[in-house]
Design brief:
The model has no long low-confidence stretch (mean pLDDT 96). Helix content is 32%, strand content 21%. It is globular. The longest helix is centred in the last third of the chain and has 20 residues. Strands 1, 2, 3, 10, 11, 12, 13 and 14 form an 8-stranded mixed β-sheet that branches. The protein has 386 residues and is α/β, with parallel strands linked by helices.
Length: 386
Amino acid sequence: MSALSGPRALVIVLDGCGAGAAPDAEAFGDHDHPSTLLHVWEATGPLQTPNLAACGFLAAGGIAVPAADRIGSLDVRWGRLQELSMGKDSVTGHWEMMGIETTEPFPTYPRGFPPSLVRMFEKAIGVQTLGNRVASGTAILEELGPLHLETGCPILYTSADSVFQLAAHEAIVPIERLYAMCETARALLTPPHQVQRVIARPFVGSPKAGFTRTERRKDYPVPPPPNLIDRIGDVLGIGVVPELFGGRGFRDVRRTQSNAEHAKALREAMRSDARFLFANFEDFDMLYGHRNDPEGFGRALEAFDPILGEIVATLRDEDLLILTADHGNDPTTPSTDHSREYVPVTVLGHGIGARPLGDRPGMMAIGGTVAAHLGIDAPDLPTLLD
């Protein structure tokens, strides 16, 4: 692909890096005053993250480190956005960024899925399932992994989010078979059981050595309503982003599965002719937030910081970079689930003016900012450039 000329927008999402409890956090079950970035900073001591500090990302999270007005010739704007959608997960967060406000919550199953629904699924895939309850993904593998190896039955579980997760050992259930089971579930999960995401969770290991989830996870979300991705078209998505939108409007690229892989893909993407790059760095959430590991979370922020510095250093005059998050996942609270928090947002660009953004309602301002920069008419979306 040839290099791009003209305006280009980059949105980078640091998955789970919330910036303080939202006003409605308790209504979403978050009674422990989550504040992901601040609590990670307090639990691990000052982090070596000069680029995240300079762009205002840490200050947006309530951390007392100064943000810069400019980084080189780039103006810096930073603040917080309050999600309006009825959710606290990656789908509702990313959808809202692109202009979709989810007004009706997706169903959740704190007592497991209805037996009639599970029986229908088992009949369709020709095998029984194990589990069917709310569980930590790592804990349920240790508990039911040995029985799965004996029976070949996949492990079904959910969480506080609207997810139908199916785990299977790669040596017992071939990966394509697991994907096919998840596609069957996706087709069966219709209203009133229109679960937001079906997730394939392959793993390896043994009872003696322990079980480990592999990097061949795959997400099957509900197809999104029309949104900014459709208006732009030919978007280059990195990580889970294309899957969250059912692939619609995205280039066909290899699914990357870790922050290191996402960084490599982003470097390659910046040499492409894509006008809009939309990346999700998921390790903060997946590896550390859900496992209540603030030290690992802090190390991941430190590992990402030079990646951010490299990206900023290669921005062209016509580029605009937005760094944000999709929800919180405070690893210092008893919960291992997502948390309803503000998300930090920082905007870097040439000639946009350096000014604080404060707290603003709606994550759709990210999409509005992208549209304004690319010259796409989107009067229904607010921007962060006013």
